[in-house]
Amino acid sequence: MAATIGVLAVQGAFREHCRALSRCGAAVKEVRQCSDIAGIDALVIPGGESTAIAKLLIMLHMLEPLQQRIQQGMPVYGSCAGLILLCNSIEDAEGKPLPQARLGGIDATVRRNAFGRQVDSFETELPVQGIAQPVHAVFIRAPFIVRTGTGVQVLATVGGNAVAVQQGRLLATSFHPELTEDTSIHRYFLSLL
User: Fold this and answer.
1) Which is deepest, 97, 103, 161, 182, by most CB within 10 Å?
2) Does residue 112 register a pLDDT over 60?
């Protein structure tokens, strides 16, 4: 039986992730409420606004069940806001700790809006470890990783800053592959299943 990939569909670019995963041949299910969690084998957390997503997860009673599934080893991929929610520690653009709710699982500290404001958004062709060709990466008010713990593998950097990391079956990127036609990050994630 094929794995069902859940895409968190409460805010952000979830439709784009659904399309990318479908193009890869994956069975996709939108996760909108707590009862949807039981029917998935893996999860994708889209880019969007991490504070809004965290508040919605709490309001919809999904934060703790998702944390439990992550602790039990469910594969998860997060892009941009998803990266923020997967890191164990979050700081603001000035490096001050933020008490924002998060799913956690990746032993890393992420800095929100680290590359600057909306006008500082950019695109680049990015070499990513484990992927043969450079990935077309779209950075929008993007975070980056400022600290990684034991077991966290840095897969890509921009300006010396980690923008793609993996810890076990948890994968996270600062950029938005779902906003391009390049499905290599999604295929890489599916290979972790």
Assistant:
1) 103
2) yes
